[in-house]
Protein 1
Amino acid sequence: MTPPRIVERVAELQAWADAERLAGARIALVPTLGALHAGHLALVREARRRAERVVVSLFVNPTQFGPGEDLARYPRPFQGDLALCRDAGVDVVFAPPAGEMYPPGAQTWIEVAELSRPLCGRDRPGHFRGVATVVAKLLLAAKPHVAVFGEKDFQQLALVRRLAADLRFDVEIVGVPIVREADGLALSSRNVHLDRAMRAEALALSRSLDAAEAALAGGVRDAAALLALVGRELAKAPHARVDYAELRDPESLAPAPARLAGPTLLALAVRFPVRGADDPSACVRLIDNRVLQPESLEECP
Amino acid sequence: MTPPRIVERVAELQAWADAERLAGARIALVPTLGALHAGHLALVREARRRAERVVVSLFVNPTQFGPGEDLARYPRPFQGDLALCRDAGVDVVFAPPAGEMYPPGAQTWIEVAELSRPLCGRDRPGHFRGVATVVAKLLLAAKPHVAVFGEKDFQQLALVRRLAADLRFDVEIVGVPIVREADGLALSSRNVHLDRAMRAEALALSRSLDAAEAALAGGVRDAAALLALVGRELAKAPHARVDYAELRDPESLAPAPARLAGPTLLALAVRFPVRGADDPSACVRLIDNRVLQPESLEECP
């Protein structure tokens, strides 16, 4: 494979995008924080299916990390990411320095109001403001026809869809299903911080999603009963600290009704201790989710 | 002149812009609230100098009006605006219904933090959030190479420049000097609400700018002395209620130093009663400004 072109400046990326568009090429953008894994590569494959040119951005966006969060510890294996992009047929790797995305005196912020409030928004104040702002900048920098996001960050995907529709971005937002290890653990750049014991405990997330889905298939429609089941599964991981385990509307993220009637998001965020870290309070926060589908099951009794 | 194409839908405007760009044409956008006057036509002339295709948007953006403001009373002479656009050689008039700019469930807002706070931002909470949000939407809808704004709304222009730079819009923001009546009154769509006596009083704004400029030319550099002079000129209008008269940095809008050293914005906002209105407390709020240039005067004694 030809190595991807590495671009650090917005103006250079915009000039490239203009030339590609003039030549009639469709452009797909895959925004990432880097530390690429098979989940990201699934996004790149989807991008290649939908466009002639694929841009992957590698940018650990500082404004989406809160004061006590893991910005400093976030992995940044640039050369490895580059090799993965080359093997995946990526055309451009956009790796801007922070000052390129936040010029001196930058003071413009984008808020997607209601969608930013629950779930991760409650636990991470300012996180989604940082996400919305940087995604808008990346869309304006790469000028894509389509942008591809993973469904693991389900709230982020819902928010980006809303942002693009509200601000009238001329771009299609595409979600790609979660990629999991063979034993069910959802891929995450943060999984590297789990030791063997914590990795075993982290399976509680996917197992609780499976349990809820199985109960639903067995006819359980009561939201409280499903959440109790999820709580019991998560409690099997003695070190898990649950930030949230909630049932919500997949589009508006409004709380689900007491009895599930339509597609319903089951979303989890759970922290585990990072043992052996300099900071004894360090933890890794994992998220996972599944959209439960009560109707389709009712159609096939 | 060929009448302009009237477009009401964002998707249609985007498709038009894509086709023009593919054909190699440069596009200029002139965002307005309609009720066009010679000040707007100066923007259109500047737009035509800089691009092959000119889009004028006519949209009375509800989100930039506060609860007690003049949204309902804002003039909307659509047919007259259209005739002026035709005579000025405008290619596209973009006149979206409100639901096209704010789709159902819209919840995305753009804030330009520091620049939104002083001057009109203090008097009109939420105004600049509405301006920033709608300008971003209009830029994304018309996909212009250049967007042209009047210097009369000086704070708006500073904010739009910042917005475009911060979010990395690939667009050039151009300011056009204030257009005035022969006697000095800055053109405004709101001047129609002034009766003869109030129109005469409204000359206090431009006269106070002239007085400050003359004092500066005479060697006055003391900010307090210049503002006292402005206050005396404004006091000659017995019905004027001054919202602000301030000296500020033209780019950051930070307060000017006690002794003027570089280019300094003198910005005014003054309200006059609208006599004969249904609401006896109705008033018209006029703004005006000038960038004072102490250095250039020092160079030519």
Protein 2
Amino acid sequence: MDKVGVWLIGARGSVATTATAGAAAIKAGLAPPQGCVTESPHFPATLVPLAGLVFGGHDITETPLRKRAEQLGRAGVVPPHLPDLIAADLDAADAEIRPGHVPSHVPSHVSGDVPGDVPGDRDQAAAAARLGDDIAAFRTRHRLARVVVVNVSSTEPPAADRPEFARLADLEERLAAGDDVLPPSSLYAYAAFQAGCGYVEFTPSTGPTLPALAELAALRQVPYAGRDGKTGETLVKSALAPMFASRALRVRSWSGLNLLGGGDGATLADPAARSSKQLSKDQVVAGVFDEPVEGQTHIDFVADLGEWKTAWDHVTFEGFLGVRMALQFTWQGCDSALAAPLVLDLARLVARAHEKGRHGPLPELGYFFKNPLGGGEHALAAQYARLRAFAEELS
Amino acid sequence: MDKVGVWLIGARGSVATTATAGAAAIKAGLAPPQGCVTESPHFPATLVPLAGLVFGGHDITETPLRKRAEQLGRAGVVPPHLPDLIAADLDAADAEIRPGHVPSHVPSHVSGDVPGDVPGDRDQAAAAARLGDDIAAFRTRHRLARVVVVNVSSTEPPAADRPEFARLADLEERLAAGDDVLPPSSLYAYAAFQAGCGYVEFTPSTGPTLPALAELAALRQVPYAGRDGKTGETLVKSALAPMFASRALRVRSWSGLNLLGGGDGATLADPAARSSKQLSKDQVVAGVFDEPVEGQTHIDFVADLGEWKTAWDHVTFEGFLGVRMALQFTWQGCDSALAAPLVLDLARLVARAHEKGRHGPLPELGYFFKNPLGGGEHALAAQYARLRAFAEELS
Amino acid sequence: MDKVGVWLIGARGSVATTATAGAAAIKAGLAPPQGCVTESPHFPATLVPLAGLVFGGHDITETPLRKRAEQLGRAGVVPPHLPDLIAADLDAADAEIRPGHVPSHVPSHVSGDVPGDVPGDRDQAAAAARLGDDIAAFRTRHRLARVVVVNVSSTEPPAADRPEFARLADLEERLAAGDDVLPPSSLYAYAAFQAGCGYVEFTPSTGPTLPALAELAALRQVPYAGRDGKTGETLVKSALAPMFASRALRVRSWSGLNLLGGGDGATLADPAARSSKQLSKDQVVAGVFDEPVEGQTHIDFVADLGEWKTAWDHVTFEGFLGVRMALQFTWQGCDSALAAPLVLDLARLVARAHEKGRHGPLPELGYFFKNPLGGGEHALAAQYARLRAFAEELS
Amino acid sequence: MDKVGVWLIGARGSVATTATAGAAAIKAGLAPPQGCVTESPHFPATLVPLAGLVFGGHDITETPLRKRAEQLGRAGVVPPHLPDLIAADLDAADAEIRPGHVPSHVPSHVSGDVPGDVPGDRDQAAAAARLGDDIAAFRTRHRLARVVVVNVSSTEPPAADRPEFARLADLEERLAAGDDVLPPSSLYAYAAFQAGCGYVEFTPSTGPTLPALAELAALRQVPYAGRDGKTGETLVKSALAPMFASRALRVRSWSGLNLLGGGDGATLADPAARSSKQLSKDQVVAGVFDEPVEGQTHIDFVADLGEWKTAWDHVTFEGFLGVRMALQFTWQGCDSALAAPLVLDLARLVARAHEKGRHGPLPELGYFFKNPLGGGEHALAAQYARLRAFAEELS
């Protein structure tokens, strides 16, 4: 079976490192494929095996992947002894990481360790060409049938709309004029599409959601999926909200507080980035219920939590004859460990969809996302049924 | 459209009183049908309207229904002013309540207010005949097309198996000999079937689950459903367990503590009755996961909670590369308010199934139960899809 | 024993209505004095008896107290049948309520039901004179030895500092010039002090905390206490924080989300007012621990909660050899029911302190407040010991 | 300053290993003394320094302490790299561990790894002599001024009362006759007292609580303290219960579920041992409130939790005018890490009390225990104040 490339934007981040290390561990028989949805017996065997995935990517930092894996070992995200056992795989993936594009407005706490010698791209047009070349060279070097680009970098603030986002011709005209108009995630999506690759937007960033990029994906016949991996609190919401709906219990309020440590938490300490995430998180409740539901979702950075996250949700609902009742839950998870196997799932599914000639958004992958591109429902079980049907159809 | 009778075993209990009062309130336009699953637009209009339900039943206590409704008003289960507004309906239902059969082993805290003049039945054979006559007379008196008997009385201890439970002929031989061999819930199911009525076992009691009674249901061509209404903690379990399963997250332990006030809590303070409930509650987790899951579910009687219930569940699970995570939830509900609309749903659905010629257990109603008779899955969304298909099929 | 007047700013609000109704209920033997700290046998009998309290106050709305009590009965804050039983007392208190001063910047959702005919005060100088006269007349009318003014009105935004707040002479010069420089709560404190009354700032508003007002309290020899009644989440914090401190467990983060319905929640939906409350809530953790503790306290308005409040707190702490552990709690309380008995306690204690010649801030009452005026510690048990010693000293 | 010996019963268990490793780590400057109550600046410097503690003990297993420390490193109880850094101290303590007495009824899951060559003691009289000799030899070998024996072994079932427990003479007569009448913990206390050592009962076992042993402690002029270290859920209870009491809020129910992994959890899976623990846990609530409080505390063994423990408590309480409110908390702690520093605190305090001539029970140490011997209150802050006064008095 053909090998498939997984090209990670933010390739030295926690999610990417965990995904790379995990694929190596599973390949080596050091861990079961727990958390990988498509490894379940409910899925056909026609997807590329985990051992057939080859890793590379872009990142703006230079910390070696092995060192990052050791940090995650100390933080309890991966077993402490694992990095040593899979050192060769980590080094191989490390050798396939190329410098990311450094956007001028990246917050200093994220770009803090960007070394001085990252080759600056003249402008976004030059960057897009260079980034695309990096991916294409990776594909050639490893004789890969297909590469799927997955964005697992830091969340961006919502992008203001611009007239040139509406049509590809207008967008390319602006880029050709040397104007840097794209949000970083959209620049990567542009480069991926131009290089003929499928793309997964695993963050709440803009990515491929501009009409001009949809036009490009159609032109290049490439599929894409997103947005914002559904890994923790929102996953639980999408399991519980349909429960209330089917029982005709009227949800009156749904409030939440997310406490996040780690790099993701630090990024989300920035109110602009946080607003992207909050908008994304509010989709599920709004998407399941007909009537408006009161309540807000807060996100706090709590450095002490490290790579861990604690979320508390409080739901009030009304039952028979107006009786008020309440449900609350506390979720304590490790976001990188929850996201990493889904990255592997998505790479396999998007590669297969690409192979089968699918292009444009893949709403059938809504199961994985807080804010499914291409529409579709938010109820988890219905999303899962659709995913299984899709996998069947692709086989 | 033909009217349908709802004959409640435990007709003066909290669930029965709430169901009777609620149907009257909805009929009078005093409350929306919140909590009634079959009132949702997803269900066909071919079921009997709520206004077409007529109430009666058996009970071993004599407190008038209006007084019971007022008690529930003070406890916050029904709006405090409601009983006055629907007094005529409560009195009408009250007039249709006949003395229940008093089993010799009923715990004193349940039978405490049984007045001395309840007509004692000579033995179970006499009781079955009398109970069946009560139901048949109700059907005739109101010219009802069909009556559905619903057991919402106190939970019984698990019944020891007996040889005569295996075949109807043997069972009837024993009854004819004057032996009282049936658990009370099974006696009511026997009487219901003999009277040609469908039956719903809303408690974890034995009810219609004896092979001899299945034989009788087949003979009389009547349908039945059960067991143990899924109203609170277990409902949430059946929404969350499939979430873990589909995400390939391995659940390692699931522990719970249920704090219950009210009559149900008092009954369950009896270890034997509690064991019926606990067995029933453990079905969901065992039914969803392939591998065994550690943990116990405790039930405590806390009188101070009145008609309310608080349950805490704690789940540990293992994700990618063995990382351990946890979810906990607290459910604060009013069991009677959660159960009552389901009683109305079940009466409508069983009546319609009966009308359409269905007999024997109805596994399509598994959505409503902790321990679905006739088999079927425990995942809530799948149960709901099956229920909708069934309702469609009946229309 | 002399009677004591309790003059409530916000006399028709939930806290004031509950306090007035509760004192009447206890006097009539309809309820035990549960929640009243000074009714415990640990306190000397020299305080004025609850039956010796006479109620009056200012408010900007005109809803009769009896109607407000009925509303609270429906909301479950007071027993539903209580208002009828104490109607005479409610009407008597109602007759002693005078129009409050309407500040120009009061948010419309609070002042919405202010009727057109509230007598407008020309300026703050005129208002202060009129408000003081109202209180003095009440004292004379009922031959009260002393009146304690208690502010239980809506929370104000923090007040910007002004040069004239520093000295009484400067402040009075500005008022005499017709300038409206005082925040509303400080205007009431000014009027109370001028009328020779003790004052309790039960809200987080500025109230008596301006140096010019401290000067006035000294001049008039009146005592005062505050600030921000410690009724729920912060009460628990002040019990738990010293536990960690004494055990040498290092608290690393303390985060919280408060969900509030009712009028208080609506006021706090205004970010400016909310910031007063948040500042106040953060005092306890900062006051108990030597080292800084990460984390924020959020306040959300959730209308569906009515008069109830749910707060969730999450604490991470470090123990022996750096091991990380966590505590979380959920508090579900009724703020008015928690605050009302403390209002009675405070009125009794401040009246007695006044009688005994105490003036200026009373730090011995820190037990009751989130942000004790006059300094003192935040640990609850230490505050309680100090309170008991103070009560002993006053007897 | 004189050195002090800490002789641990269960010296290879999790608590003992953590205490031994922690004292070495603090001595070496590898960790701050977090969690050690007596290291706070509130305590006088007259206690023996942590570096002056010398460790030894009895145990029925032979796993070397260094290996046990490595296990705890993998479980996250001590830093993973610590055991290597303090190997010499661990080995030194290991060399001071002598075979424990093997009681005939020890459950097999505890004694499972008892090797065949543990020298069996002929009977309890012989055992007491041998155990006492072990301790005395340790004291001589290290020229220790004093040795404190601390029982941190597995919890025993409650012991049935026996007539010979009432008087020392009777007890010794039975022992001399070769009768094994003492529960194991009491045998160790007997040996400790006979050897002239202070004793701490850190478990809920019987230990020194027999009248005959109190007589012996008086005779030998040795102090003792206990019972059942207050490390987690009960600690929180003793901080919260006085909060309710001082606020005159009437607690109506207090329910709890403790989920424990590890060796302690396994021992407590035995219903008899569990009942000792539950009795102990129920002391606090009963000790703080005048009126009875409904509710039970459950203890479940959940192997998946490893060395960690999760406890959920649910409290209902009644406030002003009978309003019902609720508090719930979830505690997630590591029992060994919570207990170990208290063992060090207790050894220092008991040694100092011994030096100062105190003998018999030390109620001033009630702060550390669920069930304080010698009486005294259960309110945490009051216990802490008493502890500080005691430390002051000893200095």
Protein 3
Amino acid sequence: MQYPNKIKKKTEKVINYSNRGMNLENLINESNEYYVEKDIALIYKKPTPIGISEAVYTNRGRVIKNGYFKAPSTLDYNGIYKGKYIEFEAKETQNKTSFPLANFHEHQLKYIKKVLHHGGICFVILKMNGIIYLIRGSDLIDFIDHNSRKSIPYSFIEENGFVIKEQYIPALDYLKVVDEIYLKG
Amino acid sequence: MQYPNKIKKKTEKVINYSNRGMNLENLINESNEYYVEKDIALIYKKPTPIGISEAVYTNRGRVIKNGYFKAPSTLDYNGIYKGKYIEFEAKETQNKTSFPLANFHEHQLKYIKKVLHHGGICFVILKMNGIIYLIRGSDLIDFIDHNSRKSIPYSFIEENGFVIKEQYIPALDYLKVVDEIYLKG
């Protein structure tokens, strides 16, 4: 007679964390929810700015009948971590050899400079060639100020970027990298 | 013979700064633009979060054909000033004797606590009885934690609020009051 409770096989769960089909934005949003829940940080994606050309009042309240998306001039995410102001942008590219600067809206690069000027922590989270990098705003600005190129070669990203590893919870613990880069010592 | 150029009367411009017909939100937005322009601070109104139930692609890009407004769980404005994280809400009330707490969305009051916990500067700019007050988040939370009342009596606001005066440029220099309350010494 067997004792099913005792000879029960260990369930082998092989979880490939990097392959849950979440895009970069979802990884970040999920991590931000974790940070808020655990009282680690308050970081949110800013709503996309909308222009409204037609709206009607219904019993559900005001409803937009004609609206369009405006180009943002600030970055996607901002918030507070360990008393510090944080702002960043998330980008994914399918390009393998270089990251086109056209991925940024006109005012965003100038805006990065401004955030740094005011003492904020500012960076870009970039997914390229299957790897997620944190690129410091200062490195990005430095590249742009000293190059006339319209795209950043991958070699620059490999040399200057800090790899953020995907994991289980939180899915993308980018604040660990922020700690190491910005808040040590 | 008269010399019109010489006897020209001084044009008397009597500008009543408090009476330009701008509502509180416009006063704040205009001041924020001034702060950004003069490199004093980066503070923006967050776009209202929108839910989209129908969108179509046109030659102008993606256009919203059915959208609704979501209740915000954070506050209206955030940004960075002198390296500090700032977040606040702007409210106007026609009530004369008390400010109803129903003016806040469900999660907003809890959110004020969170911002304070993370070391941010957090307050409410309240226009009531024709006067614009800055109410510290900590005072607001203190009131709520020690009262079961659903509205804040005006006497509390008069005692604990800091008056922000309207002026010419910027229209509402609330950062001057922030300096005095939070950043002195």
Protein 4
Amino acid sequence: MDPLSLPTPADIAPAYARIESVVTKTPIMRSDVLDKRLGAHIFFKCEHLQKTGSFKFRGASHAVSYLDDTCPGVATHSSGNHGAALALAASTRGFGAEVVMPRNAIAAKIKAVGTYGGRVHFCEPTQQAREAGLAQWIDQGLVAIPPYDHPHIIQGQATAAWELLAQVPELDVLVAPIGGGGLISGTALAALARGQGTVPEVIGVEPQGADDTYRSRALGRRVDDHHPDTVADGLRAFVGEMNFELIQAHVNDVLCVTEDAIIEAMRHLMSDLKQLIEPSGAVPMAGLLAHKKKFENKRVGVILSGGNMNLPQSLIDVEGVAA
Amino acid sequence: MDPLSLPTPADIAPAYARIESVVTKTPIMRSDVLDKRLGAHIFFKCEHLQKTGSFKFRGASHAVSYLDDTCPGVATHSSGNHGAALALAASTRGFGAEVVMPRNAIAAKIKAVGTYGGRVHFCEPTQQAREAGLAQWIDQGLVAIPPYDHPHIIQGQATAAWELLAQVPELDVLVAPIGGGGLISGTALAALARGQGTVPEVIGVEPQGADDTYRSRALGRRVDDHHPDTVADGLRAFVGEMNFELIQAHVNDVLCVTEDAIIEAMRHLMSDLKQLIEPSGAVPMAGLLAHKKKFENKRVGVILSGGNMNLPQSLIDVEGVAA
């Protein structure tokens, strides 16, 4: 296999075998109250309980597992979760990690990269600046571990759905958020790999304010313009080349959700599941709430992709109405 | 056994057998980051993931399991969690539930009682008013299921620690919050029942603003005055008679924590465990943070007692510093 060719469903079992011992097998949660509200059977895959608080640790661990012991260190660009994940994965092999982050990355994620031993380097919040910042480190000899547009990353992220499909049999649909497209393209490959006879539908959800994948599908190729404006800070990246190719081939549908719907979804996940899910991680739930008919009576697997966010300044609302 | 005599360790296994099929076997969570911060091994028993969002469903289910099919309905007083738990437990047997709640109960809990089919009746926020409100319903022939000062309730609440001690072997300490004392007295009985040779230490934690148990221990009998003022709305009740007797006999220590420490503990549980824990449920964690030395290098079981709260009005803090 050419290690840089487009990943296939056959890659996912070997990828899982490589990282199974280092990743957390995250639990599944469900809620009678939510199921009733949605008229469906929802199974939440808790990747916010993954090491470093997001699914990104899967791809990072997988990519790092391919590095030689002589590797002089790794570098990446990231809004935060991939950076923290890579820092931890690299540190377990004794490598340093340089993480180029946009200046508008949130404080909790900037802090997390440092917690796991990574070094943060700020850049302007544009795709160009992120890639230019990374190029400087590559020029110095470090190994680039990109956040999503790489086979090892996609194969690693696929293991979340791979696990989910083993934990919950006979799902009709899988729903995941789309940022750069690492998780959704991996999810589609896992569905194909696990689907015995009937392959679950795979649906991606994007914020309206970062709908590059949705528009790219309409156009049939990646759009030229991308000016993300959304509270879902983990989904501001531009969909990757390899990711878009896999999405076009294997993802059944892409839905868009408003900013209000994302906040509403976060509230449901807090009040009904008691889980703190970051805005990006609540985007699939927002898709379910906004497109209820589409999921009615189905068995739906939802990937809660992460839980890293700045906490609300005031936690106590004595006057507040219930969620 | 006189059903109204003081519960003993021997009661807990039979109590668990009665309710095992209806309660959720809640999971255990842990965090490397938190363990490192505290210098201890902490195992969190996730009773906020119990049905109705708190451990109260255990005691309520246990008490309801003793009712005759001819029961005309049940009644209680509650700051909320026992009311919702009783409403659900009663409804599974087809009984109605009248719930006397203090006017200052939080909106989320008032709503929850209704969600599970209970009828809310408000009273002044004093122990006397709560008991007087309940007496009216008893006069009408309903069966009182008190929130904590009853053997069936204490035996039921004990099953949380009973499960925990089966899930995590060789704990050195169990830590639980104290309100009316149902959970802590049950926890102490479970520790005695499960402790093979070495019985884990049992430590209760109270808000300074509702330190009736702490003061009662100093006095050697229940204090006469109790004017709770704390954000931990679930811990404002006055410690029960039977509960205090069991606490005096079997609880090793009672710690007090400030309001700031409770909020800080909630933040840690959100950022490090990604769990939404109500103020009352965060009180044991506040105790760990405030009395770090006491728990150093120990294996500590912490009961996260509930997760029902009004959600913060604003969830998104773009400027905020990390937790």
